[in-house]
Amino acid sequence: MDGSTRTPPAAATVAGAVAAVAVGAYFGTRGLAVARQAGFADLVQGFPTGSLRLSGTLVALGAGALLAVVLAAVAVADRLPGWPVALAGLALDYLAGEVGLRQGAGLVPQQPPTAEGVLAVLAAVGAGLALGGALSAVARSAPARRWPVAAALAAGLVVGPGVEDLFRLAAGDGVASGGRGWSAQVGVSVLAVVVAAVLRHRESGRPVGTANADPAGPPTGEPGRRSAGRAPIGAVVATAVAAVLTLAGLMTRWWVVDVFRLSPDGLVGPRRARFVESVAYFSPVAVAVVAGLVLLGYAWRTGRATAARWVVLGFATGPLLLLGLRLGFVGERAQAYLVLLAGVAAVVAGATLARLRPGLLPWDAVGLLLAALAVPFAAPTVQAELPGTGTLVVSLPSALGLGLALGFGLVLVVTAPGADADRDPGRAAGVLALGAAAIALSALALAPTVIRGLGLGPSEGVALTVPMLVAVSALVLVLLFGFGRAVDRIRRDLRAEATTEGPRP
């Protein structure tokens, strides 16, 4: 095809960045809503003393686990085009959402598997397709455009609640959830993804479905050779194992809660209530850690310290993204705009540091610690002491911390030499998928802990669980950063020694 028919690289990069923001914002609200609601499946049924339904719980938790598996499978599949798959995911999730709103159904099935269960599964599959397609497009972009599209995806994840709130305000929905604002956000997101897919197709000069590699990037296949972009199936297997372990752990919690919260006389005593609460809100921490260790182990095997840092970051940001940016454009518009701008600026700063000075400091750990400070401020008792600025003291540190952490971590994993993104985009897509799966699974497991920590009911000791977990994750990031620096120094010394000695006779 003649070169004059191809799209200028700058236009394709801008279109890809806009689409990444749209998909990231969509997943940051809708995809995490699936994980959040599924995490409460066994705690909202039969409350406070009624019997729990195994079928409804299993379907809901299965949908949350399926979210991680689908996004990983889509991201690593070399034969699937990124942006068209993301478009299909948006359409499927919107269809499930519209049907659910019309029928008055929620994301968590309250009955045996019926229409609600089907809608929960469709919503999980749609959100997984959307994010997985975006990750695939990022990994298989040309090296020069990979990092701005990755930074845009991070920005969408961080400011997702603000984007949703802006569409509600523009559509005149006020503080309502859904309605015209929901439809407007879906329409704009679909349009952005369509433009990105079309420009990518025109730039490549061949049908999008025939190959999923950027023409300016490395080739994905040569005659007689195995495609360099074919993703390792191990990333999907590791995600599936982590998802099964998460599902098994949460089902064990369901059994314990169902058995022990009912006393023989039908009354719940204080000691039994404390035990049930401990199991319900603290056992998921162990479940999330086990699943995270599985993803971390495979990430270390695939990309060493750089890939491991991305998985640890994803594990820690899952519950923090659930807290989100507590924006309210209706009553606090000036503060909301400030938070949105701060979040975008933090992502840009993190991406710039990852490109120019990645070895200066572990900025992902710094961002996590800053975002963790906002969690205790979200408690109602603290909010009551901060009239007028309660929303800002939560949203601003969250936006700055998450923006710095995700902007730095996501750009680092697609640009660092150890990521092998240039030589093997499929492997890079697998690493990206591992971190995204860690976000989804940790959000699924820790959703009740996050919400209870905000003060919705007795929460002694629960409020500090997530900040402490994030602080430990930040410490692990610092250790991985130091290990990576030490390895790089040893390699430089060995190369210098080899150059000084010269070839031996």
Automatic annotation (TrEMBL):
The chain crosses the membrane at residues 12-33, 54-77, 117-138, 233-256, 279-298, 310-329, 335-354, 361-379, 399-419, 431-451, 463-483. Keywords: Membrane, Transmembrane, Transmembrane helix. It comes from the Bacteria. Residues 206-228 are annotated as: Disordered. This is Uncharacterized protein. It comes from Micromonospora sediminicola.
